[in-house]
Amino acid sequence: MSIDIIDIRPLAGRVWLVPGDPDPDNIRGSVAVVADDAGSVVVDAGQSPTHAREIRHAMDAAGLPPARWLVYTHHHWDHVWGACAWPDVEIIGHVAGQEILRREAARAWSHRYLRDEVRANPLLGPSFRARALAMDTWDGFTVLPPRRVFTDELTLPTGVRLRHVGGAHAPDSTIVLVPDSSVALLGDCYYPPPAHLRSPDDAPDLTMVAGLVRDEYDWYVDSHSEPWTLEQARSFKA
């Protein structure tokens, strides 16, 4: 099976970034890699096993250490569906997402299942059509809950810090801080609820963003935008 070559670029210090797809119909977010001689920390799994394999190939081509830890910023499919293609890693996530992903793992995922679910609830259409596009095969696919969970904060042996922030987008939203590289990885934490649960009044939580900005972090990265500088992050107004 051929593997597409995708872009992986250094952001700051030991943080590398695989950019997301700007096409909103594709729903493919960015994935960060924190390189470390003890093993790299991968932040989010990719939106499919194929995407994950492409990221692994890009890491190898860039000479980055193999992944040892995989951190979920939250449980949504485009952040976790690639996990089954990351061998020999410890999957870490907030405790609030563990049971949700156990239920997701029990679903009979297939293209037919996706079609049936959209017929039953058309609001699921954009998300489930993107899932269908992401999955070229269901062979060997499974949703993997985190094997290690935390409640408030957790620091990995590499110095990478995980902090639960919650929010309207997902109850398990976690930010990932890399102090020595001055990078804050935000996932989707300040986004409004997913489209099928969103009301007309829902909007990005800019108050949350303002509360996360710190002088010691020069870069702020969410999953579906270009990285922001500290100055750009400060310009967000609630």
From TrEMBL:
It comes from the Bacteria. Pfam families: Lactamase_B. Residues 28-224 form the Metallo-beta-lactamase domain. Coiled coil: none annotated. InterPro entries: Metallo-B-lactamas, NDM-1-like, RibonucZ/Hydroxyglut_hydro. This is Metallo-beta-lactamase domain-containing protein. It comes from Planotetraspora kaengkrachanensis.
